[in-house]
Amino acid sequence: REPLCKSVTDKTLTATHLSYGGSFPGRPTGRWSNGFLILDFVGNLILQSASGETLPAANLPYGESFLDSPTGRWSNGLLIVDFVAIALSLPLLNPYLESSATFDHGANFAVAGSTALDYTFLATKGVYNPTTNLSLGDQLNWFKSHLNTICQTQTECQKHLSKALVFVGEIGGNDVYYPLIQGKSIQEIYTYLPYIIEAITNVVQEVIILGAVNVVVPGNFPMGCLPAGLTLVSGGDATAYDDMGCLNELNELALAHNNYLRESLAWLRLEFPHVAIIYADYYAAYQAILRHAASFGFDETSLLRSCCGIGGPYNYDDNRKCGSRDVPVCSNPEVIILGAVNVVVPGNFPMGCLPAGLTLVSGGDATAYDDMGCLNELNELALAHNNYLRESLAWLRLEFPHVAIIYADYYAAYQAILRHAASFGFDETSLLRSCCGIGGPYNYDDNRKCGSRDVPVCSNPVQYISWDGAHLTQEAYRHITTILFQDILGLPGIRYIK
Question: Up-side HSE of residue 7: CA atoms within 13 Å toward CB?
Fold first, then answer.
C-alpha cells in the first residue's frame, strides 16, 4: 500500500502551538480521546486482562499528586486531556472499558503501550509490542461500538459528534520506542513514518465521516529530550546533542513524524473544509517549557532527569522503571518551601463599573463618569490597588526567580468584555445593571440584595455581566477566564470555543 503523504505547506500559529482550519461550530459538550501516553489511560488495559494489573501505572507513585492514588495515568497527577476538560468545565474522562463508569461527557478509548501501526505490520518488521497487541485501529472500533450505544442513525450520531471535541493522539511514540529497544536503527525507523502517519490520518478521516467537526491531533514530543530516549540511544560525542543537552538524532526523527502528520492534516482540511482539524504542537510546547524552565518553576538542574526513576545521568533505567520495587521518587515534584511554584495573583475589577459601586457612590455630574458610564473615582481607586499589587509582585519575582508569579489582570479583562459586549453575547442595554436585584438605574439596592424575599432575577442571565451587583454571572466569568488564559499564556488572539 502507498503511504498517505503529500507535500503541502501547513501554516502553524506558533503563538498558540496550534494550527487549525475552519471554525469551531460550538462549545463541545462531550469529548473522546484515542492515543498513547498523554491522552492515555492505562485503565482500559488493566480492565482488559489480568496481566494489565502488573503495569506500573496501576500502582503508586503514579497518581500520588492526584487523590493520592493511582488512576492509570502515566504521571504523578493529571494529564493534558484532564486540563483540557477542566478548562472546558467538563468532567474528567472515564476509560471506555470501565463498566461502572458514565460517559455522558465522553469516553477515553486509549490503551497504554498501544501503537498507531497494527501489530501484524510491526511483526513483518521483526518488532513486537511487549505490552499489548491493541493498536489505534482497535481503539477506533471501540469508538464505533460506543457510538452504537448512544445514537441509532447516522444523522443522530453526526448531531451528537458535532458537539464533541475529539482527540486522536498523541500516538506514534511507541512505534518508535519499541523498535529502538529491540535493536532497530533510527534509519530503519524513518521508513516506518509514512505508515504511522497513514494509520493516524485514516482514523482522523473516519471520525470525521462519522460526524466529528472538532478534531485535535497532537504531534510527538521531542523524544531526544526525554530521559528514556537519552538513555536508550547513545549520542557518541558532544556534537550529537543540542544546546539543551537533547539528542539531535531523536529530535529530528520526532520532527520528521510531526512534519508528515501536518502535511497529511493539511490534505484532510482540503477534503473536509467544514471541520476544525487542529494540530497540537506538543514538540514546540515542550521546547518552550524546557528553554524557559525557571519561569515555569522547574529546577534547571533536573530538566532532563526523571523525577521517578533510578540510575545513570538521566535517572532512568529501562529495566527498573518507575513503580518498580525500590525505585525512588523525587521529594519535590511540584512544590518548594511551603511551597508553590506557580502562583496566580488577580487584581481587582473596575469597581466603578459594578452596580453596587455605581449605586453606593454618587458621581455628581456627567464628568464623574467615563464613556461607558463607569465611575472614574472608583475605577482610579481599583487601578491604584492593582498598580501597588503589581509592583509588589515584581519584587517577589526578584526574591523567588524560580517561581512563576503571575498577575491576572481582572480589570483589563472586565473592560474588554464591557467594551465589546455584543461580540460576547451580552445585552448592551444592561451592561451596568444587575441580573438579580431590584431598584434604581442599576437594579441594585444594598438593603434588598439578591437572595432576599421578592428580589427578582432576570430571565436571561447569559446576557448580563453582573449577577448581584457585586459579583459576575457565570457567563461573564467564563469569558474572563478565557481572556486571562490568553494573557497569562501569552496567546494574543487565540480563538476559543464558546
Answer: 0
Sign of CA dihedral 72, 78, 80, 83: positive
This prediction has a pTM of 0.62
The candidate with the shortest Cα–Cα distance to 441, out of 463, 466, 418, is 466
For residue 182, what is the DSSP state?
T
All 3 cell numbers of residue 50?
Answer: 489480568
Domain ranges within the chain, ordered by starting residue: 18-296, 342-489
- Of 3.40.50.720, 3.40.50.1110, 3.40.50.300, 3.90.78.10, the CATH number of 342-489 is 3.40.50.1110
Q: What's the grid cell of residue 215?
A: 478534531
Residue 37 to residue 86: CA distance in whole angstroms: 19
CA dist., res. 196 & res. 202, Å (int): 10
402-416 per-position pLDDT tens digit: 677 888 899 999 999
CA-to-CA distance for 443 and 436, rounded, in angstroms?
8
18-296 and 342-489, same CATH topology: yes
For the segment 47-93, what is each residue's pLDDT rounded down to a tens digit? 443 344 456 677 777 777 766 677 777 777 777 777 777 777 777 77
Query: Could you tell me the three cell numbers for 435?
Result: 441580573
Beta strands in 104-204 (DSSP E): 106-108, 164-168
What DSSP line would sit under 308-341, residue for residue?
B--STTTT--TTS-TTSTT--B-S-SS-BTTB-S
DSSP line for 385-450: HHHHHHHHHHHHHHH-TTSEEEEE-HHHHHHHHHHTGGGGT--TTSTTSBSB--STTTT--TTS-T
The yes/no answer on whether domain 18-296 falls in CATH 3.40.50.1110 is yes
